[in-house]
Amino acid sequence: xxxxxxxxxxxxxxxxxxxxxxxxxxxxxxxxxxxxxxxxxxxxxxxxxxxxxxxxxxxxxxxxxxxxxxxxxxxxxxxxxxxxxxxxxxxxxxxxxxxxxxxxxxxxxxxxxxxxxxxxxxxxxxxxxxxxxxxxxxxxxxxxx
Length: 145
Hints:
By secondary structure, the chain is an all-alpha fold. The chain is built from 6 helices and no strands. The two termini are 14 Å apart.
């Protein structure tokens, strides 16, 4: 029983931290010309949907841990591309060569503390989601047998 509460607390903390970082990171981009790009517009839309999913996962973590873990994992997959776009603009532009960018590329990789912290937190949250999906029911079945 203690393991369940600890696991739920870790999942709630990870979802809350991910939600705060994703919300803080994207609010300055909303309503700018960044939101109108053929690549960057969908990235912002995915980030918005991911933040809504993090809020849902946060609420569901108290009642349905495995469902919340799956939702948090999907939210991480929606939010990570925006962070990768800012951390590695060179490789992203190389992969998506659809059109010329109006802003010249200064560096292929950019070190920004918020971007790197976002990638790390989202990766940890995704790991916790996978772990909870795989092992959340195992502890209950061992204890009941």
